[in-house]
Design goal:
two-stranded antiparallel sheet; globular; alpha+beta
Length: about 170
């Protein structure tokens, strides 16, 4: 059984455990500046520590769905982090999150042959549908109140930008 330590500093909950973080789900929004701030640091931590990672956009509605679909295709094409970073950068310049023009711009920046191939693959469409259903289930199970929020090792929720700074 893992031991957990929760420390409250300045309204932020920090999480530590005796075992390493093996699984992490990030609940984020492309509208969240805190999510954008930690994006590259989070990616660095995940890669350095070989964490199983899933990012779920809390904006899980009809307006955000095309972006969510394209992000998941990008993940499967191996360019998920590039997609996410580019999207955050474009939104920071003033382009509106979830606008068709924003999504089109990002896709044109990250497009690869594998990404194009997956867009046409019926098996990929089924896989994306499963991923989106899983995201909906997690969002129903864990009512996220703020972003970023992290589900650590399937049993501890932690929120705040400072959590990733603490990890690094």
């Amino acid at each position: 059984m893992s031991k957990y330590l929760f420390i409250l500093l300045s309204g932020i909950v920090f999480y530590a455990q005796s075992e390493e973080i093996k699984n992490m789900v990030e609940f984020f929004s492309y509208r969240c500046s805190h999510c954008a701030n930690i994006n590259n640091k989070l990616d660095s931590y995940i890669n350095k520590n070989h964490v199983n990672f899933i990012a779920i956009n809390v904006d899980n509605n009809d307006i955000a769905m095309p972006t969510n679909i394209m992000y998941n295709v990008a993940v499967d094409a191996g360019i998920g982090q590039q997609f996410k970073s580019t999207y955050f950068s474009v939104v920071a310049t003033g382009m509106p999150a979830y606008a068709p023009a924003t999504l089109s711009y990002v896709i044109n920046q990250v497009r690869t042959p594998l990404f194009e191939k997956l867009l046409k693959d019926p098996n990929e469409k089924q896989l994306i549908k499963q991923k989106l259903n899983y995201a909906t289930q997690l969002l129903a199970k864990y009512p996220v109140q703020a972003t970023p929020t992290f589900l650590i090792n399937d049993n501890a929720l932690v929120q705040g930008e400072d959590f990733v700074n603490y990890l690094n």
